[in-house]
Design goal:
The structure is a homodimer.
Chain A lengths: L1 H7 L25 H7 L8 H6 L6 H9 L8 E3 L4 H14 L1 E6 L18 E6 L6 E4 L4 E4 L5 H10 L2 E2 L12 H7 L6 H4 L2 H4 E8 L2 E4 L13 H4 L8 E8 L1 E2 L3 E9 L2 H13 L6 E5 L1 H10 L4 H14 L5 E9 L1 H17 L3 E4 H9 L4 H10 L2 E11 L3 H16 L3 E11 L2 E11 L5 H18 L18 H20 L15
Parallel strand pairs in A: 1-3, 2-3
Antiparallel strand pairs in A: 4-5, 5-9, 6-10, 7-8, 7-9, 11-13, 11-14, 12-13, 12-16, 15-17, 16-17
Helix pairs in contact in A: 2-5, 11-14, 17-18
Chain lengths: 515, 515
């Protein structure tokens, strides 16, 4: 960590400690109308400061900076934890009538400001915590499971695992995020190349809106008009509350095999990934770091001598200093893993990659959910650290990679790290996931972050790529939605919102541009 | 055919000949407002009777009956064939202002009344024929192609084939249907189990609406809100005109291998299909006929001695009279075909199926686009023949199969044939495609058809299945949409329509229920 400090030009070595939760200042709670309190019934409203604080923010960099500053300017005025979808419906109706904004709350892991307690024109904000809705109902014949929106990743996997199946959905936020949140934000996980993104796993949904339930049929496919399921997925709480999700599941894999490879450079690695996916031979997990991410992640994983030694040996052998780490993970029946691993290895060798072995794969696997914790550690070191992701077709991926990288390096200056990995590969393209680090300027962190975010976002727009591949829109990306979907797209979404949420109480200030 | 006649109790042996096109009576053409004629510009409007007739109907049973009756009660008043998307936009704007309904026209192969020239509250109907929009632009790196909506299946495949790729989309309507039509109706093809349905091939679309263009980004995926692409797919011309479609393509397969198998019965065959697909081992084409369809198709394919001899030999061997034909088709690289065929054959044998060899597969392949022609032949024999399709999860497929079959047999009476095949398999379920035949009652064909259609549709609703897996909604299924998507679903679609098509001119009477 000392090396990182020196690379980023951070002088101070003491830790910036966040204040104790009891000392964080919140805006005064506005009163909840009697009708809303009545509708909450047994799911009695909480107005305790700690509850309000815990529901006030997600996990974006600005969220963490605000929490560390000791003062939050936004927090919900009360929290309800409805025990049934009927209760959700009653609360939405009461809030519509009584002019109270509603922010649905799942795992609190939004990294795009999706939980900001914006009241808009309304008199107060109610946080609707879905933790009580945690049912699991398996259809073992159809390999689908009906899941409550409040189930966190590990809870869902534990219950499903006891029934012999898995969702196979493992985003970095897995330990916190919920089924409802996955659906509301179109989450993608680390194994989505193999299992499919969450939106691809969902076969039907129920959205409880202020005007009634919107349910899609639990059938494998329908051509009965536009796909309403796809209107609910990604709606981020702005149309209603997702109260039921039916997902595809798979048998728990007999075998899992993760391994590391090194590609000559990012372009060579990307060409391998493209070949694998276009030949239907992609591993279930497939992740290519660029040179910078390879360098930094090896440097940070100091304890993991094995992976570093393997890579060093490879680089000495090739008398080169670059190289890009490629993680491949295969899951499934023993025979299928063996066969696909053998096909994959052939393509990897043909593309010039060199195997690092399974230790490197295991090392990645062990740390796959550590990102959020590492980030807290970095904030304590006074590092500004943020991630953002986008996606493009293979033919324009280089342009996007160069454009976003240059924009970030220019705005962050020389003492910064901008690194990237390619994951979520598709036959027609891939996502790029950027991480950037620089010394935080105390007291100006958010403005510093905003400049970097704006520079990257504008580079993304310039390349005609998407503003988000799987982090969703929330508050942070809302200003870019008009560029993303155009005037007619904005109007189409607004029309749906106005019809299903006529009082405009559902998660104000998120998803749609405010203009 | 004599055997079929006797089975259905049809006495007359003379053919019912349709009247010559020049003798079909059409309603008088209403005048097109000057503003619309001006907007058409070089794409001069046609009001010729033959043109109007050719744009007046699709290929549903009622369409064919009406054409054969010599009198059409609905026909567009004029036809425009715009040469550019700008012209489409200008025409939609002029029609909005001048109160003229617009029916987009692709290949004219709708089997659900999607082309009916309903004027609703408007003064006239313009058919917008998209045949001039036929561009093809390949991105060979990303394996995507930007396609004009007016390309017919074979035109698109010819141009793409010269570039070494294929869409792999082969619906029974392939020879007539267009790219725009595939997208507007969520078409599925015979190889969709392998290549994906058309909606799964589409990566982005442009919808030209009366208020402007709605374009989605050409990226592999985005989490930027609800998927607007999925709102355009299946919109059936009710929101605007699809003027541009970007699709995934694949290398032209090196090898194609089709083969026939016989399963013991429909349940055993379905179990095999489920095992194949749930183990990611499904062939690209996978189609299981029930006992009745197996019997009838062997009987009708009189010339194809080989397939019949093989099946007869099998049945003698097993001393049974039943058996269900299963067609498996593998496409791709030689090695991949070999490997998948070997995996598939193992599952088929484990499930008790017996191979009929490749001749049976080739026989099916040769006749795969003949359905529409066979239907004309049957109409000439005074047979009422119709198909309908639905889908459900594996756990409820038996219930759906039994319910629809019983409902049809009850309404059609004993001298009828009700048969079914399972195709379009998914990990969580499959589609069922019913065909029914009975003696047409002259002059009452449409009422007779309506009763059968209603009985089948109500059985589908009772099983909570979808009213259509890939034929779309059109006019025929519109009354069932409220049961399919609920009040909130209908309101969401209406809201979008009212915003993008404020004058309500786009394809009136289709998709949404009229109540």
């Amino acid at each position: 960590m000392a090396a990182l400090r020196s690379e980023l030009g951070i002088q101070r070595t003491d830790r910036a400690e966040p204040p104790p939760i009891s000392e964080v200042a919140l805006p005064e709670a506005r009163p909840m109308p009697e009708a809303v309190r009545r509708a909450a019934g047994e799911a009695a409203l909480s107005t305790a400061a700690e509850d309000r604080l815990r529901h006030a923010a997600g996990r974006s960099y600005p969220d963490l900076v605000r929490l560390r500053s000791g003062t939050l300017d936004l927090a919900p005025d009360a929290i309800a934890a409805p025990e049934s979808r009927e209760r959700v419906a009653a609360l939405l109706e009461a809030c519509s009538d009584a002019d109270v904004a509603v922010v649905p709350y799942g795992g609190g892991s939004s990294v795009v400001g999706g939980l900001d307690a914006i009241s808009g024109p309304h008199s107060a904000v109610l946080s609707l915590d879905l933790r009580a809705l945690r049912s699991v109902e398996l259809d073992a014949t159809s390999l689908t499971a009906r899941l409550g929106p409040g189930l966190r990743g590990p809870e869902a996997e534990l219950e499903l695992g006891q029934l012999g199946v898995t969702l196979g959905h493992f985003p970095q936020s897995y330990e916190q995020a919920t089924i409802g949140g996955y659906a509301a934000t179109r989450s993608a996980g680390q194994a989505s190349t193999g299992y499919g993104r969450f939106d691809e796993l969902v076969t039907s949904v129920e959205l409880t809106t202020p005007v009634g339930p919107l349910r899609t049929l639990a059938v494998p496919h329908t051509a009965a008009g536009p796909a309403l399921r796809e209107l609910v997925l990604g709606s981020e709480g702005t149309l209603g509350v997702i109260t039921d999700v039916v997902c595809r599941v798979r048998p728990v894999p007999q075998e899992r095999s993760f391994e590391g490879w090194v590609a000559e450079d990012f372009a060579a690695g990307a060409a391998i990934v493209r070949t694998l996916i276009q030949n239907d031979e992609a591993p279930d997990v497939l992740r290519l770091s660029d040179e910078e991410e390879t360098r930094v992640s090896l440097r940070l994983s100091g304890s993991d001598g094995l992976q570093k030694r393997a890579l060093d040996a490879y680089l000495r052998l090739r008398r080169r200093s670059g190289g890009c780490l490629l993680i491949c993970g295969y899951e499934g029946e023993r025979e299928s893993v063996r066969r696909r691993r053998s096909l994959g290895s052939r393509r990897l060798r043909e593309g010039g990659a060199v195997p690092l072995g399974r230790a490197a794969g295991r090392s990645w696997e062990r740390s796959r959910f550590e990102g959020p914790y590492l980030r807290d550690e970095l904030l304590g070191m006074r590092v500004l650290v943020e991630t953002l992701e986008t996606a493009h077709t293979w033919s324009r991926l280089d342009e996007l990679y160069a454009g976003v990288g240059e924009a970030l390096r220019e705005v962050l200056g020389p003492q910064s790290i901008v690194m990237c990995h390619l994951s979520h590969a598709y036959a027609d393209g891939a996502s790029l996931y950027f991480t950037f680090l620089t010394a935080a300027r105390e007291g100006e962190e958010i403005e510093q972050w905003r400049r970097a975010k704006r520079a990257a976002s504008e580079a993304i727009l310039a390349a005609e790529a998407t503003i988000t591949h799987h982090h969703a829109v929330g508050r942070d990306h809302a200003p870019y939605m008009r560029a993303e979907i155009g005037d007619a797209g904005v109007e189409a979404l607004r029309a749906v919102k106005e019809r299903l949420d006529p009082a405009g109480i559902m998660n104000p200030g998120k998803l749609l541009p405010g203009d």
